[in-house]
Amino acid sequence: MPQDSNEPSGPLGYVVGGGLKSGLRVRLTIPADGVQEGGFVVCETPRYRYYGLITDLQLGATDPRFADEKSDRLPAGIQGALYGKTLYTTLEMYSTLLLDRGPELTAPERAEWEARVATGDENPGPKPVKTVPAHHAPVRPADAADVAAIFGEEGGVNFVVGHTIEQGHPVCLDLERFVKRSSGIFGATGTGKSFLTRMVLAGLMKTNVAAALVFDMHNEYGFDDTDSDRGERVWGLKSLFRSQVEVAGLGAGSMAGANRSDFDVLLSAEEFTIDDILLIGEKLSLTETSAVTLHALERSFGNKWFAKFMAMDPSAEEIDPDTGKKTPAPNSVAFWARFSNVNEEAAKGLYRRLKPIYDKPYIVDKPPIDAVAEIVNRLEGGRHVILSFGRFEAEEDYLLVSNILTRRIRDKWVKATENFKGGLGGSAPRPLVIVVEEAHKLLSPGVSRQTAFGTIARELRKYNVTLLIVDQRPSGIDDEVMSQLGTRVTGWLGDDDDIRAVLSGLAGRDQLRGMLARLQEKEEVLLLGWGVKMPIPIRSRRYDKRFYDEIRGRSATAAPERPYRLEDANADLF
């Protein structure tokens, strides 16, 4: 449970060696099992305060003979003298930040230093560590004031995502900074990524620092669900935020479980580009000849290529009454192939592969509404949109729909941003965070450059659009995309390649590698990157009734409120 005490803790030990690269070596003055890897610790000197993490614990002995022989036969007094003197424990402190407290209050240079701080010429910190403390400088556990000094206090854009593992002090994520660059939430299957994502989204929605567009592949975020581990009902974001969140459904009359969506998303065949089809080329077993045929279709029919091609008859033939010879009919695939100098069999094969896609219920000739315009209007109007894929859970549905919608929505944001910067009118568009599950399918090395998601990840919020990618296999994501991620929130990962991918491009990754590998499989996560000033392992908040009450500003003793139901669809209860 979180602790409220702001009293400084007693010392753990004192510095006996180390360096900037290797970290500080601290000799413990308390039992070794009183601290653990990942603990947030502080080293005090008269001028500076060093903040860091415990990355290792080692047993040592001034004389190896006493380490090899058991001491239970010795008198208790001698045993007590032996432990802590001849036999001891050291910890490795990975220093990350430094706070300059200035010269002594009575020092002549104190006034000059304070003047430089007041004018901004001197930055007292916290800032990166570039020096080391002296020998025997005391080291203590971080207290609540230390944690608040680094991660901020709850309120405004600072959102509590968890608590320090040892002392239980609240750790905040600066959400305004978080949305300025693309971010990632990672963890092996079953480590609670979905709950963690719901929690972060709830913070974004509560603070309103950005609009959120969530591609909900498995129908987990909009409406209520059941926790498979505890068997308890879990509130969806619709229940938490009511009219602030709208759930879109893919296809006419779509349902997300037992719930009807707020509006339907239908796509026109004209919205499909050949790049969209090539994106799922592996799923469709397309060949290099298929790509040539697609380009020929685009040259022949422009953006209407998909509908025109599907309107053809794959086997229509005409018979010459005089000779009985069969020739392709003018409305046939073969007739177009001959006219366009394309292999006939390749064209027919492509037709067979594309027909199941064209026959998807969410693809129509003329949608009753422009789905992208509907989504954009809601996002610009201060609401958040969750696209539920309902029964369309095939990988090709997710890849196609999410890429098409993202490309068009990004184009809207690009145009609005350029108009604003160019003085052509309008205001800067509202920051937009697009949430993508199974990100490795859209951002793998061979695919990322073909998708709108890869483009967004590389733009560094140039047009006020960033990604929040959720994935269990970060090693499957393009290294260039991973290097552009600002903040990374990661649970336990059992694969060395996944650990390497999450830590790629970060300082101190060698020190953090073991810490990440030894996280508990549930609830413990490692925060690192742009949104936090220093990496830190935390115990994440539970996504439960207490969290619901805090998000909705209700007292824990207030009467319980029922979650969202169908009859609430036209009622503004928030």
Write up what this structure looks like:
By secondary structure, the protein is α/β, with parallel strands linked by helices. Helix content is 32%, strand content 23%. The strands form six sheets. It has a twelve-stranded mixed β-sheet with strand order 9-8-27-26-25-10-24-23-11-22-14-17. A six-stranded antiparallel beta barrel has the order 1-2-5-4-3-7. A hairpin with a 6-residue loop joins strand 12 and strand 13. The chain is elongated and about 115 Å long. The two termini are 29 Å apart. Residues 1-8, 555-560 and 569-574 have low confidence and may be disordered.
**% residues in beta strands:** 15-25%
| Structural class by helix and strand composition | alpha/beta
Q: Between the first and last Cα atoms, what is the distance in angstroms?
A: 29 Å
Counting DSSP E segments of at least 2 residues, the number of strands comes to: 27
Question: Sheet bearing the most strands, described?
Answer: 12 strands, mixed
Rg value: 30 Å
Give the CA-based shape: elongated
Helical stretch tally: 20
Q: Low-confidence spans: pLDDT under 50, at least 5 residues?
A: 1-8, 555-560, 569-574
Q: Could you give the order of strands across the largest sheet? A: 9-8-27-26-25-10-24-23-11-22-14-17
Which bin fits the share of residues in helices? Answer: 25-40%
Q: If you average the pLDDT, what whole number results?
A: 87
